Amino acid sequence: MNRKKKINQTLKAKAKKANAKLHSSNKPAYISKAERARLAAEADAAPLPQAD
């Protein structure tokens, strides 16, 4: 009984890991506070060109 349980447990764990790899998360990547500040500074320093 224990051998069967252990084999099934191992197979279920492998299937769960394989399934997790197929489905990616919709969560956006983390951007640090310093990186956000740097991006904001770059956006302020380089304004969009205006048509005259």
Automatic annotation (TrEMBL):
Domain of life: Bacteria
InterPro entries assigned: DUF2986 (IPR021677)
Low complexity: bias regions: 42-52
Chain intervals for the UniProt region annotation (Disordered): 1-52
Pfam families with a match to the protein in the record: DUF2986
Positions with biased composition (Basic residues): 1-20
Name of the featured protein: DUF2986 domain-containing protein
Lineage of the species this protein comes from: Bacteria, Pseudomonadati, Pseudomonadota, Gammaproteobacteria, Alteromonadales
